Amino acid sequence: MGVLVDPGQGRAVSAELTAISGLPALFRPTPAAAERTLEFFTANIRNPNTRRAYARAVAAFAVWCGEQGLPELAALRPVHIAAYVEQLQGRVSAPSVKQHLAALRVLFDWLVVGQVIPFNPASSVRGPRHSVRKGKTPVLTAEEARAMLDAIDITTPVGLRDRALIGLMVFTFARVGAAIGMRVEDVYVQGRRTWVRLHEKGGKVHEMPCHHNLDEYVHAYLNIDGLGDDKKAFLFRSAKGRGGQLSALPMSQADVYRMIGRRAASALVATKVGCHSFRATGITEYLRNGGKLEVAQQMANHESARTTGLYDRRQDEVSLDEVERIRI
């Protein structure tokens, strides 16, 4: 006799089985191990960026284990994790090695709690030492940022969108993920001032008043016919083909990255700029004009002032001035 299954439940079970079959063989020696591993990536990790990064790290480790003849999850020991970390150091940067190790540690902890393995083989393995005082994110000068904004053709909806989005990231220090996740209702007026509401990492809601330039950019964008009517609609929407019109779908991070590349090229900005560059540019210019680090930390929604300090590139200009003293 067949088992009666609700159609919706059947689809869910089918999707789960497909996901389990896609796991590396190392992490599905038993149905319980496979299910627990799948739960780690679905129920335990909520941030999609972290999920993707950890999935890549775990998959790479599983491939390495296969190459080393280590097919059994329960057979893994600290010496195996240490050997993996050692060979990783010859191929990738120290921060990437630390991320791989972190992924293995938390996954193995999850498997230990689920009684899949008796102990965590990665818990005692130390990663490489790594200390930075300045971030690697390319930073624009104020002149370059202004040139990019001024070069945008604002006679089209796409142009108004791009100016508002770049302005948002510069003047509120917003992460690109928080920017493209905004809804129309996340722009509001309070105390005769326009504010924006950013949904940051970890479910944190961060609210910022708009700089007067950003106020102008956002309201010019929202004045596009019909764009501001649906308060639940996405604020920054993808374009329909090459016509300059907007769809109802949100921009992706890849969309923003390509847009930034086009805008930089049209403004003749040679700096290799990315999505995060505007956050770093805004913080640097704020501090250069007398802003306080602790206030910048609050504006950027950083947990630590040390993190905010990584975006401070004022010393780059000082270094350049000193180099120019070498008059030959």
TrEMBL record:
Pfam families (UniProt xref): Phage_int_SAM_4, Phage_integrase
GO molecular function annotation: DNA binding
Database matches in PROSITE patterns: CB, TYR_RECOMBINASE
Domain Tyr recombinase, first and last residues per copy: 135-325
Keywords attached to this entry: DNA integration, DNA recombination, DNA-binding
Alphabetized InterPro entries for the sequence: CB, DNA_brk_join_enz, Integrase-like_cat_sf, Integrase_catalytic, Integrase_recombinase_N, Integrase_SAM-like_N, Tyrosine_recombinase_XerCD
GO biological process per UniProt: DNA integration; DNA recombination
Residue ranges annotated for the Core-binding (CB) domain, each copy included: 31-112
Family: Belongs to the 'phage' integrase family.
The protein, known as: Integrase
Originating organism: Variovorax guangxiensis
